[in-house]
Amino acid sequence: MLARVSTYRPSPDNTGAPTEETINRVLGLPGCKGIYYLFGDAQKSMSITLWDSQTSLDDSRQAADKIRSETSAEQHLQVLDVEEFEVLTREIKG
């Protein structure tokens, strides 16, 4: 499993949380296994998308860039960074 982590700075009056439409667009990309959106105290937020393979991650870059760009403009977010990682551990306590 792989992850793409995007870091944002929302406008002061906004968390930048994605809309249902944006979430559905991301989850509709082939190989996408999930999405998390985090908001921190320092007016900084992150999205983490999970991918089933390197091929899916690679193939999604252009579409993800477009979604990120459109969402950032709509939500008044500044994109600070986009990085990709291999997920070495994944456990959720039930």
| Order of H and E elements | EHEEHE
Supply Rg. Answer: 13 Å
Strands in their spatial order, largest beta sheet: 2-3-1-4
* Total count of strands: 4
Total helices: the number is: 2
Report low-confidence residues grouped into runs of 5 or more.
none
Q: What is the overall shape? A: globular
Helix content: 25-40%
Question: How far is it from the N-terminal to the C-terminal residue, by CA?
Answer: 20 Å
Strand content: 35-45%
Keywords:
single chain; 94 residues; alpha+beta; four-stranded antiparallel sheet; 32% helix; 36% strand
Write a short abstract of this structure:
The protein is α+β, with helices and mostly antiparallel strands. It has helices at residues 20-27, 54-75; strands at residues 2-10, 32-39, 45-51, 77-86.
Write the topology of this structure.
Blueprint: E1 2-10, H1 20-27, E2 32-39, E3 45-51, H2 54-75, E4 77-86
Antiparallel strand pairs: 1-3, 1-4, 2-3
Structure report:
With 94 residues, the protein is of the alpha+beta class. It is 32% helix and 36% strand. It is built from 2 helices and 4 strands, in the order βαββαβ. The chain has helices spanning 20-27, 54-75, and strands at residues 2-10, 32-39, 45-51, 77-86. A 4-stranded antiparallel β-sheet has the order 2-3-1-4, with helices on one face. Strand 2 (32-39) and strand 3 (45-51) form a beta hairpin. 16% of the residues are buried. The model has no long low-confidence stretch (mean pLDDT 95).
